Amino acid sequence: MTQERSYRTTAAEANRRKMIDAARECFVERGYAGTTIKAVAQRCGLSQESLYKTFGGKARLLKAVYDTTLAGDDTPVPVAMREHGLAVRDAASPDQAARAWADMVIALGDRLGPLLAAVTAAGATDTGAAQLLETMNQERLVGARMVADHWAGNGWLDPAREPHEHARTLWLLNSPEVRQLATQQQDSTEDYHRWLVHMVRTSVLRDHPETAWTP
What PROSITE patterns does this protein map onto (predicted)? Predict the structure, then answer.
């Protein structure tokens, strides 16, 4: 019985991954409005009933796709405890922290970019997409507060402002809108990385050194 239950669990997890992968492809290719549960079912080779039983509907499916894409896989490990989050946590100096944070912002943005474009385009007209955008913004703010609080505990924040104010700055710098505008003015990912480090070092962290970015 235990082996049978284990097999069923493994099969269910594999099917869930198939659904999420197929849904991601559909959302990116067709947009949120153009993606249907039927289309996802056809893409992954599973039934519509299975999709509804697993996710309940398209909005919850989109959230699952977002969560999995953000994390990089479907294992229940938060971003803060993954490679880039741990690098930010374990940084030994403000400069290392700024660089690790910029690494994380770029890595997560690269991973989410195509999906975010589809969700943002649908957000103005679709309630489900708009709700996900709001959830994403709130989750990003929670992450920014965690980073700011950690840096405050290390004594690294500029004392001219409170930690929650620095968290808002990190939240804004990590927004898709700022990324789009900033990258339009940068020649390469390396330039964008230097700009992020410069902004964090001069507006969030104390003892501002000269950085290798020139406006």
Answer: HTH_TETR_2
- Identify any residues that bridge with 205 across adjacent strands, giving them in sequence order: 157
Domain match, 44 and 96 both: no
List CB contacts of 177: < 8 A, sequence separation 6 or more. none
What are residue 157's DSSP bridge partners?
Answer: 205
Count of other CB atoms within 10 angstroms of residue 124: 9
pTM comes to: 0.86
pLDDT digit string, tens, across residues 116-142 = 888 888 888 888 889 889 999 999 999
Domain that holds residue 34: 1-62
Whole-angstrom distance, CA of residue 192 vs CA of residue 106:
9
| Structural domain total, the chain | 2
CA distances from 161 to 106, 169, 172 (A): 26, 11, 16
Q: What is the C-alpha to C-alpha distance for residues 104 and 85, in angstroms, rounded to an integer?
A: 7
Cβ atoms of 150 and 86 within 8 Å: the answer is no
User: What is the separation of C-alpha 134 from the centre of its chain, rounded to a whole number of angstroms?
Assistant: 13
Taking Cα atoms as reference points, which of 118, 102, 36 lies closest to residue 69? 118
